[in-house]
Design goal:
By secondary structure, the protein is an alpha+beta fold. The chain has 7 helices and 6 strands, in the order αααβββαβαββαα. The chain has 2 domains: about 5-40, no CATH class; about 50-205, GAF domain (Beta-Lactamase). The longest helix is centred in the last third of the chain and has 25 residues, at about 185-205.
């Protein structure tokens, strides 16, 4: 006896019943709809426009200064030491790269701030001075930069009110580019872009 027609008929009946239940019981339909769409939605605290504008500013900064990388690094807490003091860390949250330049987003993540004290000291100066890596004292911070082919860099703090919440930095990975840096133009551009980035990030913080 050929049972295939019965199987097909049964499948059609099951599909019809499922469609009927989903259509005539809105609560079920709405729940299914939320389950399908929820994974596609970003958290309400995430402002896509803010981060899009920040990345555009970083790209403008990189192109106008002819550097290899333009980054935003932000401070945060992750875990605690045995004595209960929170661990202060830093993570690269935004990065714009020149063609062919490797990113630091993967390696500059959840790094202990204490390992980057020479850099943090420069951040707190709030001066867009150009620093040559060869002239920096030996440290983990210097080795980290050299591992990413950094020849020169400049850095400025990012503030939220009176607090330094991170920094913006630009890096040159070619000695010929580093030798051709027009310091006055670069420092002025870095300060201007930093100020605009602060406005956008503070707007994000106010909406969280």
């Amino acid at each position: 006896m050929n049972l295939e027609p019965y199987y097909e008929f049964g499948a059609l009946i099951a599909a019809a019943i499922g469609g009927f239940i989903t259509w005539f019981f809105p609560s079920i339909r709405n729940k299914l709809s939320r389950e399908v769409s929820s994974d596609r939605n970003l958290p309400k605290s995430f402002n896509w426009d803010v981060h899009s504008n920040v990345h555009e500013l970083l790209t403008e900064l990189r192109v106008s200064t002819d550097c290899a990388r333009a980054q935003i690094v932000q401070f945060h807490n992750t875990g605690e030491f045995v004595d209960g003091i929170s661990m202060k860390k830093l993570t690269c949250t935004h990065e714009s790269l020149n063609s062919g330049v490797s990113g630091q987003g993967g390696s500059l993540k959840d790094q202990m701030i204490t390992m980057f004290l020479p850099l943090i000291n420069k951040v707190t100066k709030n001066n867009p001075e150009i620093y040559m890596i060869d002239n920096c004292p030996d440290s983990y911070c210097k080795q980290f930069a050299e591992s990413s082919s950094v020849m020169a860099f400049s850095v400025l703090p990012i503030r939220n009110s009176a607090w330094i919440i991170g920094f913006v930095t630009i890096q040159w990975c070619s000695m010929s580019k580093a030798d051709d840096i027009k310091e006055d133009e670069v420092m002025s551009k870095l300060e201007s872009i930093r100020d605009q980035i602060e406005v956008h990030l503070n707007r994000q913080n106010k909406k969280v």
